[in-house]
Design a protein that fits this description.
By secondary structure, the chain is of the alpha+beta class. It contains 29 helices and 27 strands. It has an eight-stranded mixed β-sheet with strand order 8-27-26-25-9-22-24-23, sandwiched between helices. β17 and β18 (467-474) form a beta hairpin. 51% of the residues are buried. It is a multi-pass membrane protein. Residues 26-99 form the Cation-transporting P-type ATPase N-terminal domain. Residues 1-21 have a biased composition (Polar residues). One of its GO terms (cellular component) is plasma membrane. Belongs to the cation transport ATPase (P-type) (TC 3.A.3) family. Type IIA subfamily.
Length: 912
């Protein structure tokens, strides 16, 4: 049968490349004798056993090795980054200050981060191990003229290998004989259609690898036919070996969020340490306190100012985002990844199975009189035909039976296909070749049932005559039915006088990126029982079918939403550029679709590629190395890049990208191990939800930071201002510890439950170079810090001046800091005025505030808490009235700031 070899019947066949071989020899151009000379082998008898042993000793086994790092070293390496150093210093400092709870919390955060990093690194190692396992097989080899079955790891360059249907190709080979030989190369290319191979030398000087029809590659699979090939590369020199090396060479990049957090953490730590040193020196000069008291005050300032809860808060926000994504069938393998997708401005995706259904479908039928549009996509039999592009003819629904040629074409489609369709796991599953699946589906759409075939004989597809044929009895007649290359079949028919009509039809079909198959028939005598390929002629051409892997409807919707969100979607595929362009246009990938091919990329150096990479949105005939270079070039232009893929060939690019996204169902284990995120249901539309959630997560992290910094700095400023003014400290160290601890357990987590703001997908991706905070944010942090600390100090001085005990003033100042945080929380929750319909949107915030107030009641009125935290029972006015009034002052001032910021100056986000 013709099977899926129809991919080579027209110029729009799918092409799939892998990396160029390490040497410059054009192996595809050499004839058999030249190959035998080059590899010092015998094309009939193979290598001698002794020579094979020598080569194995010299070159090593045909297996991929992975460099292993001990698990202990991998774990220790996770502590080697700036934010861990800062956290460790804070943990040690709080421990020696006897703030054991803070020290324990920070220590747990450090260990949790290390474990997460360790698991990620082990997963990358697992991806390499998966690739290594792909070369483990057994194959038949000819040595000393004898056919032997050996372990593929024992193969050497120059070995003569026999390949049959079902074999795994064990090494890169140049074929010297091929009989209807087809190889499934999707493991390398991502494209699912088997590739027809040949043994003849090819004359071109610079063929792309996909066009080298006389070469096969390690880890691919033989789907039909048989062949002999001479091994040209083993182990790491094979194409799969190059991919493994690429995966190994790619260094795991730090996510934009973590880079921003690291930068912020380092900056804050330096600023706090410098302030502490200056404050200590100034205190020494002023001689306000004794040296021990001054040291305690400075350490108190550092502890109060350091936002120790920031890493924990960030981790919890990310974890909540990860949980939300899991509910949407998106598995996030590392916490920062959930935010990274919200920052991307380029989503690279493969075509087959991601943007398309990976289910070949007949979409056009051309008969001698009419053109039919076939509705329905994929292997689902829901659909029908539209007549000449119109749903109705003369106001009536079309009856395709009115076209006799169409009737014959449907019969031939059903009688010449061997594909079967089964409804399993809530989807149609194909048994057989994709092109046959398309014809079976066409038959079922038109008739409503599966074809029944009374076969007499079949003639499989052969590249020598480029068609297949079947002899069968149907409706009381014996028919010879043929399908194959349009040019070939047309010569065997009675349509010679209509060549122009069929040429125009083929041009129209191929212009739409369709693969074209011709179907013809002939009534023969009942005594005919065999098919003679040489004697076929005088056929009646029923028509042409145009087949394509159709785009997913949900993919088109997702692309539109991503474009609206300011995210560019780029297609990277091994397919032919015409087919890729056709799909891109159907999906409305961009306003202007521009394509470039892998060979054209190979002709550029890295600088040239970087300069031109943004001009293209379709990358056709792309190799694994092309994909890796594309991602790197985009990153060099300061893009935050997502890469979506499912094949082994995608693994290097998945790992290189800022966020790698693998398919959960059709994705290979290598791809899933290399990625940061897995789409459990293979639905590209899930990326839109992930981008939305990523932006939501970033907004909540940013709100958390904007909340934590001024409230933490306010605690430090209370100490600084008191030292500068020569006053007693309004707050005790244990009270500062309480503020940090109670905030870490309650109020700062209110932002976790803040819902996404309207229009979150209408704005462009954030500028990761601008950091987490803008100049306006820093200004806001400054005035809010001074406002809260100033209110606390003023109230303390006011009460103590009235003659009240210091412990009363201290307890009230403690409450003022807490209520300043509470009211500032309401200001930061969203961009709307505090009194609006959004006030009760985050109900969890009110529960959290309620818990915080209960804790405050405990610290103020429970005797054992009073003794630990230096508090006392106070009346409502001193203890609660003044703090509430101060909190309202904070809210009014910050609401005025919000009004000026958003109404007059425009929302700045994090962009200066």
């Amino acid at each position: 049968m013709i099977n899926d070899n129809n991919q080579s019947l027209n110029p729009n066949e799918e092409q799939n490349d892998t990396q160029n071989p390490p040497d410059a020899d054009n192996l595809w151009q050499l004839d058999e004798s030249a190959l035998a000379t080059k590899y010092a082998t015998d094309p009939e008898n193979g290598l001698s056993t002794a020579e094979a042993a020598d080569r194995l000793q010299h070159d090593g086994r045909n297996e991929l090795e992975t460099k292993r790092t001990s698990r202990f070293v991998q774990f220790i390496k996770q502590f080697n980054n700036s934010i861990i150093y800062i956290l460790a210093a804070a943990a040690v400092l709080t421990f020696f200050m006897h703030h054991y709870s803070d020290s324990i919390v920070i220590g747990l955060v450090i260990i949790a981060n290390a474990i997460i990093g360790y698991v990620q690194e082990r997963q990358a190692g697992n991806a390499l191990e998966r690739i290594r396992e792909m070369l483990i097989s057994k194959n038949f080899v000819i040595r000393d003229g004898k056919k032997l079955e050996i372990d593929a790891r024992e193969l050497v360059v120059g070995d003569l290998v026999n390949l049959e249907a079902g074999d795994a190709v064990p090494a890169d080979m140049r074929l010297i004989s091929a009989d209807n030989f087809n190889v499934q190369e999707s493991v390398l290319t991502g494209e699912t259609n088997p590739v027809e191979k040949q043994e003849e030398p090819m004359s071109e000087d610079a063929l792309a690898l996909a066009d080298r029809k006389n070469m096969v590659y390690a880890s691919t699979a033989v789907t039909s036919g048989s062949a002999f090939g001479i091994v040209t590369a083993t182990a790491e020199d094979t194409e799969i070996g190059h991919i493994q090396q690429s995966v190994s060479d790619v260094k795991q990049t730090t996510t934009p969020l973590m880079r921003n957090l690291n930068s912020l953490g380092v900056g804050l730590s330096i600023a706090i340490v410098v302030a502490a040193v200056l404050l200590f020196l100034l205190g020494m000069v002023m001689d306000t306190y004794s040296l021990p008291t001054l040291l305690i005050a400075v350490i108190t300032m550092v502890v109060g100012s350091m936002p120790e809860g920031l890493p924990a808060s960030t981790s919890v926000v990310l974890a909540m985002g990860t949980r939300q994504m899991t509910k949407k069938n998106v598995i996030v393998k590392s916490l920062p990844a959930v935010e990274t997708l919200g920052a991307v401005d380029i989503v690279n995706t493969d075509k087959t199975g991601t943007l398309t259904k990976n289910e070949m479908t007949v979409t056009k039928v051309v008969t001698p009189e009419h053109t039919f549009d076939v509705t329905g996509v994929g292997y689902d039999d829901n659909g029908g035909v539209n007549f000449d592009g119109h749903l109705k003819l003369n106001g009536k629904q079309v009856d395709w039976h009115q076209d006799s040629a169409m009737e014959w074409l449907v019969k031939i489609a059903g009688q010449t296909t061997d594909a079967e369709l089964h409804f399993e796991n809530n989807r149609w599953e194909l048994t057989g070749e994709p092109t046959d699946g398309a014809l079976t589906t066409l038959y079922r759409k038109m008739t409503g049932h599966d074809p029944e075939v009374e076969e007499i004989e079949s003639l499989p597809f052969d590249s020598a005559f480029r068609f297949s044929a079947r002899l069968a009895d149907l409706d009381g007649q014996r028919l010879l039915m043929v399908k194959g290359s349009p040019a070939t079949v047309l010569r065997l028919t009675d349509q010679a006088n209509q060549t122009a009509y069929w040429d125009n039809a083929m041009d129209d079909l191929t212009a739409d990126g369709l693969r074209v198959v011709a179907l013809a028939y002939q009534v023969v005598d009942d005594d005919v029982t065999t098919i003679d390929a040489q004697a076929i002629g005088g056929l009646h051409l029923a028509g042409l079918v145009g087949i394509i892997d159709p785009p997913r409807e949900e993919a088109a919707t997702a692309i539109a939403e991503l474009r609206q969100a300011g995210v560019q979607v780029k297609m990277i595929t091994g397919d032919h550029p015409d087919t890729a362009m056709a799909i891109a246009n159907k999906l409305n990938l961009a306003a202007n679709v521009n394509a470039i091919t892998g060979p054209e990329i190979d002709a550029m150096d890295d600088q040239q590629l970087q300069a031109r990479i943004d001009d293209y949105n379709v990358f056709a005939r792309a190799t694994p190395n092309n994909k890796l270079r594309i991602v790197r070039a985009q990153q060099a232009n300061n893009h935050v890049v997502s890469m979506t893929g499912d094949g082994v060939n995608d693994a290097p690019a998945l790992k290189q990208a800022d966020i790698g996204v693998a398919m959960g169902i059709k994705g290979t284990e290598v791809a899933k191990e290399s990625a940061d995120m897995v789409l459990a249901d293979d639905d590209f539309a899930d990326i839109v939800a992930a981008v939305r959630e990523g932006r939501h997560v970033f907004d909540n992290i940013r709100k958390t930071i904007r909340f934590l910094l001024p409230t933490s700095f306010a605690e430090g400023l209370v100490v600084i201002i008191s030292i500068l003014m020569g006053h007693e400290l309004p707050l005790y160290p244990t009270q500062l510890l309480w503020i940090n601890m109670v905030s870490a357990l309650t109020i700062q987590f209110a932002f976790i439950f803040e819902p996404p703001e309207a229009g979150i997908m209408a704005r462009g991706p954030r500028n990761v170079k601008s950091g987490l905070l803008s100049k306006l944010d820093y200004f806001e942090i400054g005035y809010v810090s001074f406002l809260i600390s100033g209110l606390g100090i003023f109230a303390y001085n006011y009460l103590t001046a009235l003659g009240l005990p210091n412990v009363v003033g201290s307890t009230m100042s403690l409450n003022i800091i807490i209520f300043g945080k509470i009211f500032y929380l309401f200001n930061l929750r969203n961009d709307h005025p505090v009194i609006s319909k959004y006030f009760f949107q985050n109900k969890m915030a009110f529960y959290i505030i309620g818990i915080l107030i209960l804790l405050q009641l405990g610290i103020i009125y429970l005797p054992f808490m009073q003794s630990v935290f230096h508090t006392t029972s106070i009346n409502f006015w001193y203890g609660w009235g003044i703090p509430i009034v101060c909190g309202i002052v904070v809210l009014i001032v910050t609401e005025i700031g919000k009004f000026i910021r958003f109404r007059w100056m425009g929302k700045d986000g994090v962009i200066d």
